Fold these 2 entries.
Entry 1:
Amino acid sequence: MKKIKEKIESLKLSFKKEILTIFIIDIFLLIIGIVSYLFLKQIIFLAFTFFAFVLFSYFYLSRYDDLLKKREIEAQDEFVSLLPFLKTFLQNGFSIYQAFGELKNFASEYLSLRLTRLINNIDIDKSIKPYLDFAHEFKSLQIEQLLVCLYQMVDEGNKDIYLVQYELLFNKMRDEASKNLVEKKRNMMDSLSIFPLIASALLIVMITFGVMNIVGESINGI
């Protein structure tokens, strides 16, 4: 539960509200199952309620991992989309420190916090470490290479040479972002295809319990 709470809070969601939502919906499903059983005297409704209860809880709780992954992908895509602005700032004579400071004004709140942390770390530590720490948050080799390039630009001062390397790395990342978008759409289509399978499985379970219930009533009648 502690890990789930950390994930919820990292997404800027209310832990109490999320747990309350799950509790209310689960109670609602339970009431539907009990009322259906009392009126129709069919155990299949209790079984269906149980499976609905389990499936809802599982998918609702597992969505936090998906939301975190989605946020990281969006942050990486956003950072790549802002790189042309960063290049423009550097070409206009801004230092790396100043360029990142201007860049965060165009970023979302989540990415802006990362950029602010990078700027503060650069102010304290003049080594390559702040650049690598920032790059590792994205888990992208191209972004790591680009941040190393930016550090070398500061450390060695050959801005024109490293701007060419910067442009090459940016083109690679742009191509990677396009591939990720295609993969994202493919995964979305694959995830949608699982719902008919779930519906079929539930239907089979309902039919099985229905048949068992009919057979049981027939035997009791004999």
Entry 2:
Amino acid sequence: MKAVNGLRYDVVTTTTSTLTFRVSVIDGYEFFLDSISLEATYGSIADNGDGTYTLSGISRDIVVSASGDRIYSVEYRTTNSSVSLEGYDNPPSKTAGGSFSADVSSSFGWAMLSVTVYMDGRDVTSEAVSGGSIRIDEVTGNLVIIAESSFPWMIVLVILIVAAVAIAIYIVRRRNRD
């Protein structure tokens, strides 16, 4: 029997032409249990409804494959910014394989500094981030999203310069009146 990473099987009973087995999830992995599917090179597989399956019609070597939708964790580390996903009030902490999309924004008054995305510890920022959008075509590992915004010092500096110039003009005009 071949199972994708994270799934295993245990034989429950055997006869000369049948095999009853249980498919389970290995510790440290998560799957949507209703997504687990089984396929055999021949014969038939019946779901017994109690977490076991029976393979019948066995007369020679047979390959059974088990697969399913794995669930991955999503961790958000934000500093003066937020991550939003369409359809969610609060971003989820788990996602199934498949695509993943999110938008990142700075908190009011803060300037976006950086967005970094890791998938299973590998930096995928260059292929996943464009501006304030995160797009991953196929999630294949746990995600960590880091979004940081900084205080907009350049804007404050510009405002201070404009204010200083305005004050200087006011003082010059006031002196010219006197």
